[in-house]
Amino acid sequence: MSKVLVTGGTGYIGSHTAVDLLNHGYEVVTVDNHINSYDAPLQYIEEITGKKVSHYNIDLCDKEATEQLFAEHQDISAIIHFAALKAVGESTEKPLLYFENNMKSLVNVLSLAEKYGVKNFIFSSSCTVYGQATDLPVTEETEMKEAESPYGRTKQLGEYMLKDLAQFSNINVISLRYFNPAGAHSSGLLGEAPKQVALNLVPVITETAAGKRAETVVFGDDYDTRDGSCIRDYIHVEDLAAAHTCAVTYLLDGKNESSYEVYNLGIGEGVTVLEAINAFEKVSGKKLDYRIGPRRPGDVIAIYSNYEKANDRLGWEPKYGIDDIMRSAWDWEQNRPF
Ligand code: UD1
Fold it and tell me: Is 116 assigned a catalytic role?
């Protein structure tokens, strides 16, 4: 039974990935400083899987504390590194906080991986690394344009750093570029539960419908798209979690062709903001209170993925679409246990 360290393991994508790994026979160690996630997912990860997780409440910027974890688990085979700050707007207000936190934690984890001989590393990257892409859908060969925010820059810098590390050390790295993760776990026990106020479209919609916020504002309907609103590629969090298990298995089986590989993780379909709202109204049977507002600074107009490479190489295939995402997110909003 191979052991996987999941950093940011009580966060949204981390907790779903921990479940998927455990369901595929991996042993899981999680670490989180809980600045943007609760303790509760631990209990639910164990309830869903019937397996135990070894958890550490540690800030990865504290290298000494992090080293204790590595010293206690000298048999870690792979690391999936989710832990990072991820609010685009906040990163423009506090760029240094983002550089310090996201880069320092990454360097600390990598240097401990090197010291303790962990040879497989998976990095949570983002489609944000493409900036304002012009050729759609984007493939892994699409060039990285200027990042639209310091948050996006930390993902680009992370990728560059890892590429060099993979070339000049014996660590194998996969960067997974997520498009827009959304939805909740089919058990109803895990979902998006940030401690900070939700800013992403899907939770904004469900919170509005649940009466937790007054309205949803559509950020612009005058873009050059089919209905004027921005286009994104929404991917169900369970599909995303499954891709991580595929990536870990692929590295552990030594199937990688190169020491540094990059994969897009989306479902290959562009959905506008207004189409997402329609999907929500259809599956929930509720009218959403929304209005059209001004454009949000820094928004990419349209982006969606070509995920053929992940399909070919990792054997990964997304199962869900925007309706499933909205159904599970709405169920989560109404019945969430934490
Ligand atoms: C961005 C990044 C993504 C990153 C995420 C972190 C890009 C292309 N994507 O996602 O990689 O992981 O931030 O948070 O850079 N919208 C509204 N009203 C709202 C909220 C959103 O109209 O109240 C619209 C946005 O304008 C956008 C779409 O919904 O068109 C999705 O927005 P959001 O959920 O915030 O994600 P991104 O900004 O696409």
Answer: no
